Amino acid sequence: MRTIDSKLAVRFATAVFSASLPLLGGCASTAPAPRAARPAAPAPLLQRFASEPAPTPRFLDPERGRKLRAAASDVQAMAQRTAERERLPALALGVVIDEELAIQKVTGVRDVTLGGAVDEHTRFRIGSITKALTAAAILRLRDEGRLSIDVPAARYLPALAGVVYPTRDSRPMTVRDLLTHSSGLPRLGVFSPASTARDVTEREILATLDGFGLESAPGTETSYSNLGYSLLGLLVGRAAGVPYRRYMNDALLAPLGMRDAAWEASQVPAGALASPHVRGVGSAVTPIQPWRLGASESTAGLYASLADMGRFIGLQLAAWPARDAPEAGALRRSTVRESHMMARNGSAFPAAGGADGPGLGWHVREDCDLGHVVFHNGLIDGYSASVMVLPQRGVGVVALANVAGADLESLNTRVLGRLQATDALVARVVPPSPSVRRAAQAVASVIGRARTDLLDRRLRPGWFPEDHLASLRQELRDVGSRVGACALDGSAMVESATSARFGLRCERGALSVAVRVDTSPDPLITSFSVEEQTGAIAWEGLRPRARPSRCR
Question: Are 175 and 235 in contact (CB under 8 A)?
Fold first, then answer.
């Protein structure tokens, strides 16, 4: 193989999940918050948009949806076996494909003593998955200009001024720190977070903060904190000027169509609640009374149905990919995507292969097989829940059970493995942008020709020293003398909006050309390389961008 290469090499690689974040019950506000004057929304920033929008990633297989849905019977059988093996009173499993609850299995009884069939509208408590909704409320308030997530949280909750920082150089705890479990707060506060007899109050929660010691300096460590999300629920009420529940219902649950959602068991219609259960001696399962979380419900309090959770997962999937279409959801698509990215050091970025960490209300991992995975589990007072979302693949799975300690994450992982076996659980592929394709065509057009004017006009001035450019021209003529005239063959491997590798079909062989262009209004070439293939090109059609991985 011979290679002609310009100053910059174009590199291509591969992608990566697993594990879970231990979750428990948690907390948010039911007491009316003091009505704050609503600040005027900031003037919208002026943004300029590309005249040539970036190509929208797409699924290439027209049979993808049918193939995934064809696994329904196997998925349903997995759910049934799990319910029987783990002696779950009731189990609700759903697979969302392209925003539709496409596969579901609901089995068991609402109560082992009283019986009662379950269906897709039976309410289960989702536990700490509530945190993803609380984070969504914070981000919506941020988008509305009512708070900033990068200022000290004490600006909105003055009681936080009473916490004790571990070192004198600790910076103030921010709202973002609370969202990403990096505030230094421990898992639980010193107030009783739950009771079957009474609600914890906002005053009780805030009163415990005076002299409360942080475990670490904010922003330096990740430590899962129900207390932090209890405070975020109070913060929602302060910033919105209405109680937490009201804002959640009006701003998120109703727009999402989560009609079955409730904050207390008493709000669920008769015959619609899956009673909480605990395991006793010898795996006996016994009904219990649900915990009352009161002002700490923002961490784990929501009751929802399988139908509700299908709509919530649909919101997550609808945010991808980035595109020009009008906004239509309860949250901006860019905000939902932001919540799916690993958050660290005040910025968001995709997880590297094998890495995992907090997003904004979610946990994020890059899996060796499944790619970008966004997930959360829930465990509280007789309920278990698990959600996994594959944003780049347009699929999510949710499992709900009315007994504590059910291993639903393993069930969801097996379900995704079965879907992957269809060969249709694939990531979207980014087609090459017109400017990158034109650049590749310019290179192809001069291979074997004496004159290289067409290519020269597409090169960024100053990026190619004349002596180097003369050598490149001669190499292009030499390779052309061996393979003859060439043209793009339709195959491409895209690295970014400005970089891709294309296959070339030639008169006497095959080449591939990698090009990179700049982002000027008339994009010009800043790098290109041509490789001579010894046989047929090893890839056909569009291929997804590969990313560095620690999975090898």
Answer: yes
Tokens of 390: 């594959």
Peptide bond into 255 cis (omega under 30): no
pLDDT at 537 over 50: no
Query: What sign has the CA pseudo-torsion 335, 341, 344, 350?
Result: negative
The single residue listed with the structure tokens 């913060």 is 235
Cα–Cα dist 91/112, whole Å:
13
For residues 381 and 195, the answer to whether their CB atoms sit within 8 Å is no
Two structure tokens written together for 259:
């009609």
User: What whole-number distance in Å separates Cα of residue 420 and Cα of residue 230?
Assistant: 37
Contact (Cβ atoms closer than 8 angstroms) between residue 415 and residue 95 = yes
Of the pLDDT bands very low, low, confident and very high (cuts 50, 70, 90), residue 21 is: very low
Give the amino acid at 257.
Answer: G
Cα gap 305→121, rounded to integer Å: 5
Could you say which DSSP state residue 330 is in?
Answer: S
310 falls in which pLDDT band (50, 70, 90)?
Answer: very high
**CA pair distance 189, 56, nearest whole angstrom:** 46
How does DSSP classify residue 415? H
For residue 266, the 8-state DSSP code is: G
- Count helices and strands (H / E) in the chain: 14, 20
Least confident of 233-242, 297-306, 426-435: 426-435
The answer to whether 476 touches 4, Cβ cutoff 8 Å, is yes
| Contact yes or no for 314/100 (Cβ under 8 A) | yes
Per-residue pLDDT tens digits for 51-106: 566 677 789 899 999 999 999 999 999 999 999 999 999 999 999 999 999 999 99
Give the DSSP H/E element, type plus range, for residue 499: strand 499-506
| Share in percent of the chain as helix, strand, coil (round to 5) | 30, 25, 45
Question: Which residues sit opposite 401 in a β-bridge?
Answer: 91, 384
Say how far apart CA 40 and CA 25 lie, in whole Å: 36
Amino acid letter at 307? A
Q: Among residues 107, 104, 131, which one has the least CA distance to residue 117?
A: 107
Give the burial string for 495-510 (b: 16+ CB within 10 Å, else e). bebbbbbbbbbbeebb
Reading the block at residue 149, the tokens are 């997530």
Give first-to-last CA distance, the chain, whole Å. Answer: 25
Q: What is the dihedral of CA 197, 201, 206, 208, to 10 degrees?
A: -20
Tokens for 522, please give them.
């008339």
Give the start-end residues of each E strand in 245-315.
277-279, 285-287, 303-304
Please name the residues in contact with 149: beta carbons below 8 A apart, sequence gap of 6 or more.
Answer: 138, 139, 142, 174, 175, 176, 179
How buried is 456 (Cβ within 10 angstroms: 0-12 exposed, 13-18 middle, 19+ buried)?
middle
Query: Nearest CA to 60 among 500, 540, 511?
Result: 540
Q: Measure the CA–CA gap between 183 and 227, rounded to whole angstroms.
A: 10
As beta bridge partners, residue 532 has 511
Distance CA(447)–CA(505), nearest Å, equals 12
The two structure tokens encoding residue 63: 């049979």
